[in-house]
Amino acid sequence: MHDYASVNPCTWCDGCGDYGIWTAARRALVELQIAPWQVLLCYDVGCHGNMSDKIGGYRFHGLHGRVIPLAAGAALANPTIPVIAFGGDGASFSEGVGHLVHAVRSNYRMTFILHNNANYGLTTGQASALTWQDQKMNTSPNGIPETTLNSMDFVFSLKPTFVARGFGGDIAQMTKIFTAAIRHRGFAYVDMLQACPSYNKFATHEWLLEHCYDVHAEGHDPKDFEKARSLAVDTSQRVATGILYQTEDVPAFHERLKPRQGVTTTPVEEVKIVDTTQWLKTYM
Amino acid sequence: MTRLAIKIVGAQGQGVNSVGEMCAKGLKRSGYCVFGYREYMSLIKGGHSSYQLDISAEDVRSSAVYVDIVVTFNHHGLEKNLRDLKQGGILLHQTPQWKFKNPDDQAFVTEQGIRVIELPTDAILQKLKAKPILGNVLITAAVWSLLGQPEEQLHELVREQFGHKKDLLDLNFACIAEGFAACKVIAPGITLSLPKSDPKWKDHLLLTGSQAMGLGIIHAGCRLYAGYPMTPSSPLLTFIADMQNKTGMVVKQAEDEITAAQMMVGAMHMGTRAVTATSGGGFDLMTETLSLTGVAEIPAVFILAQRPGPGTGLPTWTAQGDLLLVVGSGHGEFPRLVMAVSEARDCYDLLPEAFNYAEEFQIPVIVLTDKQTAEALFTQPAFDQASAKLKRGRLVTDPKELAQLQSADRYDPAASDGVSKRWLPGSAAATYCAQGYEHTPDGSFDETSENAQAQMAKRLKKMEALKAALPEPLYTGPKNPEILIVSWGSNRGVILDVLESDQCKKRSIGYLHYQYLWPLKTEVFEMLSRTARRTIFVECNHGGQLSSLLKLASGRDVTQKILKFDGRPFFYEELRGRIFEALSPLTPAPSPRGRGA
């Protein structure tokens, strides 16, 4: 843990779920024996993005809504370096939702950790696509007129290869999920439900504590796609957490690129001036 | 200098491009310089498109307004393109029993001595039991015969294309024979004599600007290309994608331009060379990413293939209307390099430079091209493979040096030229945050006044160092020209052709061509412009954008502008006429759109 320490003090609100995710992320990296110089952590813009200078490792703090393609580009350039992207539910299900769709179907080798507090925290509590109905929010004094997006139903409809859900209060379970996600062959979607004591008055820490349960304790088989989907989608009584679904049978994007098959170097190692004479005959 | 032109017209999908390309290749192999120019509409089938070849035994880099032969696939071309012909020109068509309905057209044909020739394509194809697609070979053969070129050369071309299919090859040969035979009947004694050929052209390459740029990207060591289809940048994406099995490059057709730009940035940060290319509105979508690369000091290369805007504008036409956009795009102030290619050679030679500047200065580089350069066909000497060098600036890769790095070296404001050390994820070294927020030297958040000033000053110092490192604009002409022409991008070819014309050769006219457009070098411009009697800017936009930038950078505002903003490039006689118009009353102008070369 010491290797991933930062001299910068955290700036999140007391009771913020980001603390737990931050701790579990560092733990998972240490457990996997990944040194800070061996990883790239990419951050979206939102409260979670304030982690970018509170942790060791190579980091990239980019634009709001765009962390997935940024991380995907990095992962394609060097598939030997684990790439982890962190984003909030505001960015990921509104401005950047298109990227999520295509990242799942592309199955890039990367981990995406969703800091899911069901609102835009850093801009002071506006509703996101995941905010519940009838919640008074900043700019939605009457609650949202839109329907709430069922994020799990949406993600499962995209045929993901790894879906997990955790809760910001359970560091042990989150660590387990992160280690599995980082090791995953393709795109790992990790939904981390977290409290936002300042703006989320519905899915509070206490509510999450009460409703979340570990599916593995109840014998769930993460190979069962349909079962995983139904467990994930239905949150009316309880909220299923743990590794809900995983398949390693689907190759990652870079493995599916025909020109890269059998190539032992990474694009990072291949940068050199190339003599193109061999390809010019066709223009003579 | 003698130059001739052939214009092939028809509906899109009829074979205009294949005939154009086949003729171009054959002519180059016969020892001619060929310049190809396409016009087409934003649709797949139908419309009216053209492929014009300008041909000479000397350098030809532009299209003429008036042509020697019009070849038309359908009856529309007979009317629409009749007046593209020079006096005595040949109108080759394949519409049985054609009669001009408009008496003016018939009068034009008579007065100008236009020779209207009908090729009985359908009858010949029926006789040979050949599919309509073979009509392309037939019509090429007729053109070949009119140009007095040998039949065998066409055999060679079709053998290359269909050599693996014996039946098809024989049918192609039969079409060629019939085309030549038909011309003896329909056009007895009619030939268009080409100037004496020059064998030097045979070793040249014949390729589009997009192909040359794709090869330039490969040459530069770029290993990842992310793009989203948009004309006229799409041919580049197609080229790179078609080459991937040979190059091993990672090619991603992204879900949008934002993704393409972000992937390029992520890949560049990881340490490979990556690029994205787009046009018009696609670039607008990339500009937030452009700004991010400015603050996070990530090397980045954006290619913008210009077309006329605003909005969707004229998607398949050309323009130089985005220069001010790229100089000012992206919020906030940050250093950047804007450069422009003008022809196949630039497309190849300047791409390694774009990546080198991006890495040496850790800045975004925007490479401007346009539809004209992207889709024109150039006759180009074999590319220079030896000159390009891989320059990666202050990239640290040596293990000993890496071990000594501190996180705060990444954005160290003490660097005298503003360029601090950069090292890649996966390097055994102190780590840092590539940060989109204003940051301390190690990439931590810092909103203090002192830090904000220090980091902004650090980044913008790079602009001065970059300006000093850039080469001067290219000057062609006498030492103290009476008339100075200033331009950039695809206008270069037509300007050089005009300056080499008989009418201009004797005049004291110089041409200053800008490849690097921001930051701008102004010394040579100021020196030449101060002593010239006239300074004339030539640009394909409404505002004279380079002239505005040079005014901003040099303070000099004593210029004339020749501008065009209708989606078409400047044509040869047109530009020559407009230059003479601009020179009056300095000189009596010859007929501005005089016919013939």
Question: How are the secondary structure elements laid out?
Answer:
The complex is a heterodimer of chains A (284) and B (597).
Chain A lengths: L17 H14 L8 E4 L14 E4 L5 H11 L5 E6 H5 L3 H10 L3 E7 L2 E2 L5 E2 L23 H6 L5 E6 L3 H13 L3 E7 L11 H7 E3 L10 H9 L5 E8 L6 H4 L28
Parallel strand pairs in A: 1-2, 1-3, 3-4, 4-8, 7-8, 9-10
Antiparallel strand pairs in A: 5-6, 7-10
Helix pairs in contact in A: 1-6
Chain B lengths: L2 E10 L3 H14 L3 E7 L6 E11 L10 E6 L2 H6 L4 E9 L9 H10 L2 E4 L2 H8 L6 H12 L4 H12 L3 H21 L18 E4 H11 L4 E4 L6 H14 L2 E4 L3 H14 L3 E5 L1 H17 L3 E7 L16 H6 L8 E4 L3 H18 L2 E7 H5 L1 E4 L18 H6 L28 E3 L13 H21 L4 E3 L6 E6 L2 H9 L2 H4 L3 E6 L1 E3 L4 H9 L2 E6 L5 H10 L4 E5 L8 H12 L14
Parallel strand pairs in B: 1-4, 4-5, 5-6, 8-9, 8-10, 10-11, 11-13, 12-13, 17-18, 17-20, 20-21
Antiparallel strand pairs in B: 1-3, 2-3, 7-14, 12-19, 16-18
Helix pairs in contact in B: 1-5, 5-7, 6-7, 8-9, 8-13, 10-11, 17-21
